[in-house]
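ok trying this again, last paste got cut off
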Amino acid sequence: QVRLVESGGGLVQAGGSLRLSCAASGRTVSSYGMGWFRQVPGKEREFVAAIRWGGGRTYYADSVVKGRITISRDNAVYLQMNSLKPEDTSVYYCAGPSCYCSSYSLLREYTYWGQGTQVTVSS
């Protein structure tokens, strides 16, 4: 069984940092890369960042992260979040895409999803 497991969420004060991790168990989840999304209740899940295997090209939602977030990988995929703001409060999900995608920012490009990890930023 293929699973994606996120960790590293929690409560942090505004201006603080968190590093989220996403590990895959079972066989390789995706041959193409990994992405991070976030969602708050009542809103659509939104793209945050993605990394493509083979070259390591990265993709960011500039309107969301504005230079505050970095995606990286070794044996897991990480989302380093700095200068956190209360509006970053959300459940963060990692996801495995099913393509060498044109954008990596669309929900339909992803097949595998983790269960999510809560990030809460207090003001």
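PB: full thing came through this time. The first helix runs from residue 62 to 65.
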